[in-house]
Inverse folding.
């Protein structure tokens, strides 16, 4: 699965990030499939903090790439994704996880008794 995520660069206390498409299982600073933009949190001008290639971001989202939470927020501010659809899917995932966690202790208790 491909994720749209940030890759940290820069020196100590001077972060600089690349935003790119990467395989989900690669490490944080591992190889990117494609560089999509940059994020400089120390830039004074808010318009220059984030640079994105919107066309390529839409391409990867169309291919099924999942943005990380931070990148999702950046894309939502730029109007590149539908935030309501993302939030509804995320709410459903949280409910599913809570259900699985609730069932897990009950199953372990049954195993100990048997």
């Amino acid at each position: 699965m491909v994720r749209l995520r940030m890759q940290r660069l820069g020196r100590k206390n001077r972060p600089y990030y690349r935003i790119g498409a990467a395989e989900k299982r690669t490490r944080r600073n591992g190889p990117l499939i494609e560089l999509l933009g940059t994020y400089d949190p120390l830039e004074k001008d808010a318009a220059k903090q984030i640079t994105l290639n919107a066309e390529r971001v839409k391409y990867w989202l169309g291919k099924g790439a999942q943005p990380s939470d931070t990148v999702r927020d950046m894309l939502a501010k730029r109007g590149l994704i539908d935030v309501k659809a993302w939030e509804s899917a995320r709410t459903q995932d949280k409910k599913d996880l809570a259900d699985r966690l609730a069932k897990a202790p009950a199953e372990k208790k049954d195993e100990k008794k048997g």
User: Anything to note?
Assistant: The chain has two domains: 2-80, 82-114. The mean pLDDT is 87.
